[in-house]
Specification:
Layout (H helix, E strand, L loop, with lengths): L6 E6 L3 H10 L5 E7 L3 H10 L7 E2 L2 H6 L5 E4 L6 H11 L3 E3 L7 H13 L4 E3 L7 H11 L6 E9 L17 H4 L3 H16 L3 E9 L4 E3 L6 E3 L5 E8 L4 E7 L8 E8 L2 E6 L5 E6 L9 E5 L8 H9 L10 H20 L3 E2 L2
Parallel strand pairs: 1-2, 1-4, 2-3, 4-5, 5-6, 7-12
Antiparallel strand pairs: 7-13, 8-11, 8-17, 9-10, 11-12, 13-14, 14-15, 15-16
Helix pairs in contact: 4-5, 5-10, 8-10
This protein binds nicotinamide-adenine-dinucleotide.
C-alpha cells in the first residue's frame, strides 16, 4: 500500500478522453498529475505546459513513464491495441492502473494477461465509467431492494451518430481492425455488456449479428479510400444469470443520437428505464399505494449516489477496493463476451459464453 498522502499519477495517451480524466482528477485531492506520455510531442508539450509538468516528466515512451519510481499509479487512455501492453508493463513494475476500455484488442490478449495477473496481481480498474452515473448507482440500490421484483428481461441500446456518412468522418484508428479490434461493438458494446453484468450478472449464451455499413473511408493523409474491416452495427440477444433475457443494439450510425446509452429493466412488479443523457433521473413504473394502475414516473436520484470514478481508483491504490468498482476480472469477462459475440456473428450460431 502507498502511504504518501498525495499520489503521483502518470497519464499515458493524451487525446480526447484524457481531457475528461484530467478534469476529473482535479476533483480528487489525493491524486496529482506527475508525469505524461504521448507519442505526439505537440500534444505532449501542450498538455505538459497546461498542467505545469516538468520537462523530465514528459515521456514519449510509455516504458520509461511506467518505470519512473516517482510515478505511483498509471491512467492509460491509449488506442485499444496498446491496452494489453500497458497492463503488462504495470504488472511487471507492480504499478496500480486505471486502464481504459475495451479491456484488450481480443480475447487471446485477455487470456495472456490473466495468466500474468494471477502470478502478480496489481490494483486494476477498467474504465467502465457508466457505473459512476448517479442513476445507475441508484438503480442498483433499487434492484437490491427488489423494487421491481425478479428481473425477467432487459433491453439495452447504445447509439451514437458520428460514423454515419453525413459526417464524412475519415479513416481513423477507430476503423482500423489492427488498432481497434472491433468497431461499435468494442467501443460502445463493451459498455452495454458491463451495464448488463452490473445490473443482472454473467452472460450464459448469446447470438449476434454485426454489419459494416460504410465499406471505405478516406485516409486523412493520403486522401486514398481505405477498406473498413470493423462493424458499424452490432446486435445480440443473450441469456444471462437467473435466466434473464437481454436484447442489445449498438451503432455509431444513428443520426440524431448523441451519446445515448439506454437501459430498460423489466421485472415482475415494475420497470426501470435509464438514459445516461439524463444522469440524475430514473423512469420507474411500479404500483404504489395510491396508484390503481402503474404508470411511469420520472424521479430525481436522491443525494448520496454521486461518486467520482477516480475516487474509487485513489481508494484502490490505497488498498481499498469498492465492491462495485470495475476490476480486472470485469475487463476479462467483458472481453470474453465480446469474443463470443464475434464468434456468433461469424458462424450464425447461438454460442455458450461460460
Ligand atoms: N470510458 C469511456 O467512456 C471512454 C470514452 C472515450 C474513449 N475511451 C477509450 O480511451 C481510449 C483512447 O480513446 P481517445 O478517444 O482518447 O483516443 P484519441 O485518439 O483521441 O487519443 C489517443 C492518444 O493516444 C496517443 N498514443 C497513441 N499511441 C501511443 C503510444 N504508443 N504511447 C503513448 N501515447 C500514444 C495518441 O497520440 C493520442 O493522443 C480508447 O481505448 C477508448 O476506447 C473510453
Amino acid at each position: 500500500m502507498i502511504k504518501s498522502k498525495v499520489m503521483n499519477v502518470g497519464m499515458i495517451g493524451l487525446g480526447g478522453m484524457a481531457e475528461a480524466h484530467r478534469k476529473a482528477m482535479g476533483k480528487i485531492e489525493c491524486l496529482q498529475l506527475g508525469a505524461l506520455c504521448d507519442v505526439d510531442e505537440d500534444i505532449l508539450n501542450k498538455i505538459g505546459d497546461e498542467e505545469a509538468i516538468r520537462e523530465n516528466k514528459r515521456y514519449t515512451k510509455m516504458e520509461e513513464l511506467v518505470a519512473d519510481p516517482e510515478v505511483d499509479a498509471i491512467i492509460s487512455i491509449v488506442p485499444n491495441h496498446l491496452h494489453a501492453y500497458v497492463l503488462k508493463l504495470c504488472i511487471q513494475h507492480k504499478k496500480p492502473i486505471m486502464a481504459e476500455k475495451p479491456f484488450t484488442l481480443n480475447f487471446d490478449e485477455a487470456e495472456e494477461l490473466a495468466a500474468l495477473y494471477e502470478k502478480q496481481p496489481i490494483p486494476c480498474m477498467v474504465g467502465f465509467s457508466y457505473r459512476y452515473i448517479p442513476s445507475f448507482r441508484y438503480t442498483k440500490k433499487l434492484l437490491e431492494k427488489e423494487k421491481i421484483g425478479s428481473i425477467r428481461h432487459i433491453a439495452v441500446r447504445y447509439l451514437q451518430s458520428f460514423g454515419a456518412p453525413l459526417f464524412e468522418v475519415p479513416y481513423l484508428w477507430r476503423f482500423n481492425k489492427a488498432l481497434t479490434g472491433t468497431g461499435a461493438l468494442g467501443d460502445l458494446g463493451s459498455h452495454m455488456i458491463d451495464s448488463a453484468r452490473f445490473f443482472v450478472g454473467e452472460f450464459h449464451s448469446l447470438s449476434a449479428l454485426t454489419k459494416t455499413f460504410v465499406q471505405e473511408r478516406k485516409d486523412p493523409i493520403s486522401g486514398e479510400m481505405v477498406k473498413v474491416e470493423v462493424d458499424d452495427y452490432a446486435s445480440f440477444q443473450a441469456v444471462l444469470e437467473h435466466d434473464v433475457i437481454g436484447n442489445f443494439v449498438t451503432t455509431r450510425h444513428a443520426v440524431g443520437s448523441g451519446n445515448q446509452l439506454e437501459i430498460t429493466l423489466y421485472g415482475d412488479f415494475g420497470t426501470i428505464h435509464l438514459n445516461c443523457e439524463r444522469p440524475n433521473e430514473v423512469d420507474i413504473c411500479v404500483k404504489d399505494a395510491e396508484d390503481k394502475a402503474p404508470a411511469f414516473k420520472t424521479i430525481q436520484v436522491p443525494d448520496g449516489y454521486e461518486k467520482q470514478q477516480l475516487q474509487d481508483f485513489a481508494d484502490l491504490i490505497r488498498g481499498q477496493s469498492a465492491q462495485e468498482m470495475p476490476n480486472f476480472y470485469d475487463g476479462y469477462q467483458n472481453q470474453k463476451v465480446l469474443e463470443k459475440i464475434i464468434q456468433s456473428a461469424e458462424s450464425g450460431q447461438f454460442v455458450k459464453v461460460n
